[in-house]
């Protein structure tokens, strides 16, 4: 559906509400009880003016107190009943809001785990964060509090109208003449409020993104001395937000003002036409005044509720758009039936992975690209092979790895794992056999032990220390204050880049992968740490299929096969010695790097 169609459909009243029904069904018992208690509370509210009418017509007009004790007991009983049911309805509303928020956020977060890499390439962190936290919060409030309030206000509106019609139909119908005017006012303002609130929510996402970048990139901001620019950009975004918010609130205020003026006419009509009733039945006149005044509160609520629903429709649109996003890479129903999915794996059906990889006539272009990165590419990678992928920065070295890991699917052709198309088995089955070490290491907040156990939750203490020993990180961890239980900080910020990389490497090894992917794993570390990692690589790639993306060509001289990438395409392949002998692009690249390293060494 196009954005224009979305906007057209979203302009309809309450269009987004039916999308929330699946999340409401789970709590239908609580919602039903909330409605029942709300109706009971409304009944008590409607009964009080009737008691007031009786008191004035009986005790005042007739000057008798014969039933006063019963009246007082009944009045106090209704007040107590009203307090109890209102408390229970409020409790149910709080409970529903909290649980619906939890379910929506869990559903959004789980769906984000299923989405492909391309989604994260196209959407900023602030935008995603706003969907999961801000939008779900507003929707949870709509389902709980708006529903509870709607039960009370609408039932009070209907009940009071019915009672007034029963007592004096002529006067009641004159009061109801106000409803067509309210409908006209609503139709005039609704579309403008939706558009204004949609713009505000989008600006809010932009502000959240800028705020997130300002925090996560604090070091870069300070080293580049661009605090003033970041501040100007943030002030500009918040300034736009202020202007849009003022405009939206002016519309909302004008809408509320006109609706409130219209509703006040109901009271004026009672005062104008109801005076003659007071001559004979002061209690009836007082009751009509109470109901007429009471009608103003539901009308005011309806105005505010419509504005809130219109605002929340934008949140519903954006959240459901996220939940409706289809991953670029997904398993077929047949594969899920046999192998399970990421959250419900059927490991008993998983075949052991050996590690043979084959590209069969593979052509590939990225989802947002026009040109093919690979065309009719064929390559066999036997189990235990060490394949190096080299090229200058930005040449497109990660494409082959992305296809092997099923982060992207081939546009044409097949990628075989152990002789079978990778799409015939689940992504989780494949990912569980891959150890991936990134150029920029990432550790989760927590301890060293917790981070390493992400690689293998069932690893023993001995296995953890063995993995650390293999990557020359054993001494590093033993020197920490609490050893394996030392905190690494948010994102591993309490450690150096080299230390984080060593732990990332140990985490990958602890998983005992059949396929090991090293994405420029030594590019951002110092020379000493690089030597440690390079020594570890030579140890751990034995008995595994390894794909090494490298910028420094000196680290891949012993590879079984070197694939040379230039401008997103493989231009050469062969062994180190063969490629040097050919005197092509690889030879020139290697010679230039070698000369740069010699110059740096002489100057160092």
Give an account of the 3D structure.
By secondary structure, this protein is an alpha/beta fold. The chain contains 22 helices and 10 strands. Among the domains are: 18-323, ABC transporter type 1, transmembrane domain (ABC transporter transmembrane region fold, Up-down Bundle); 443-512, P-loop containing nucleotide triphosphate hydrolases (Rossmann fold, 3-Layer(aba) Sandwich). Helix 20 links the parallel strand 7 (515-519) and strand 8. Helix 3 packs parallel to helix 6, helix 17 (461-470) crosses helix 19 (497-510) and helix 21 packs across helix 22 (585-603). The longest helix has 47 residues, at 68-114. The radius of gyration is 35 Å and the shape is elongated.
Mean pLDDT: 81
> What is the overall silhouette?
elongated
* Percent of residues in helices: 55-70%
Strands in their spatial order, largest beta sheet: 6-7-8-3-9-10
Q: CATH homologous superfamily of the domain at 18-323 - what is it?
A: ABC transporter type 1, transmembrane domain
Per DSSP E runs of 2 or more residues, the count of β-strands stands at 10
- Largest sheet entry: 6 strands, mixed
Termini gap: 61 Å
What structural class do you assign from the helix and strand content?
Answer: alpha/beta
Q: What's the architecture of the domain at 18-323 in CATH terms?
A: Up-down Bundle
Number of helices: 22
Strand content: 5-15%
CATH fold field value of the domain at 18-323: ABC transporter transmembrane region fold
CATH class of the domain at 18-323: Mainly Alpha
Cα-based radius of gyration, to the nearest Å: 35 Å
Low-confidence stretches: 1-15
